[in-house]
Amino acid sequence: MIRAYKFLMRPTVGQTIALGEMLRDHSSLYNGALQERRDAWRHSSKTSIKYGQQSAQLKEIRAFDPGRQGRWSFSSQQATLRRLDKAFAAFFRRVKAGEKSGYPRFRSGKRFDTVEFPKDGDGCRWDATPHDPVTRVRLQGVGHVKVHQHRPVVGKVKTVSVKREGRRWYVILTADRAQPEPLAPTGSVVGIDMGIANFLADSGGEFVANLRHGEKAAEKLEAAQQALSRCMRGSKRRRKAVETVARLHRKVRRQRLDYAHKTALALVREHDFIAHEDLKIRNMSKAPAPKPDPDRPGSFLPNGAAAKAGLNRSIADAGWGVFLQILTAKAECAGREVMAVDPRNTSRRCPECGHTAKENRLTQEKFHCVGCGHQAHADTVGALNVLRAGLVRREAAPA
Length: 399
What we know:
It is a single chain. This protein has about 400 residues and is an alpha+beta fold. The chain contains eleven helices and 16 strands.
């Protein structure tokens, strides 16, 4: 079982400069490889360059520029080239699928914030001095950097990554650990219905509030963004304003993650089986298509884009996708079962008689079956139907 750990690094002033130079040089390598691919495609009869060809040039690049490219780990540079190769693979996959392609872009030093070391001991070493009471990570070209290790790392460290977030530096480890002991069974099953008014409702009639972290911080973020827009580019005031905006966004992100972890942990501890809707969040948060006005060429009819934008902000603020990922990971560690079911008609089907009609859901909260007269909270009805669909799917699944 692979698990990730993220720890705050405490580099010295000199190490901070070296870390910034490492990101800068890897960004330069990434951009140079991207430019080579673009030129080959445009000027060499649509020739496509692969990762293997660019990786074979690394030795010459390092010998030509030993002061910059030659001082960093060879494996980390290969990982940067693989990162570009994955970007092109995803680009071609989207083109074939008819989706918005999104051609790989050049990355400035400010937008390139991660360097990966594919193997612990190759250009990096986690806790290179085990007898030192202070945990450290050794990085080639940087040195031994202090790390605030707030929890133990269980298992063998496989990969090490260095990431910059604002003015902070983090080390991210992936470790291969044995399957932990499962939690004792509780005999309880539950279905959950994700929402906006409430973060989720379960099949037992309980609700988890939506704290709307982004909405609460909206005024401060708006003021910080306005202050940033008034600063001259390249000035010291602008750098401080950028740090302020980044700090506010980081706080909201950490609050959202903390709430998701606590909510998922409570569900995993209390229930053996958890069913949830298989939400297509990317499709749900798409902007509505424009409506051309047939009477006035070049003009468009109202399409509800403003209202949809508000709904999209609420969906993003709720963080459904992050929560479901955390729930699945925690359930795997605890020996619990999580199952996604088709969400269609879960809020329109009566749990008593099975009658399905859009008239059953009168409002966002009220459910009143036109067939048998059953009344309940609409989100609770949805959670009940999700649970039943999950149990049916679990029984039908092959052993």
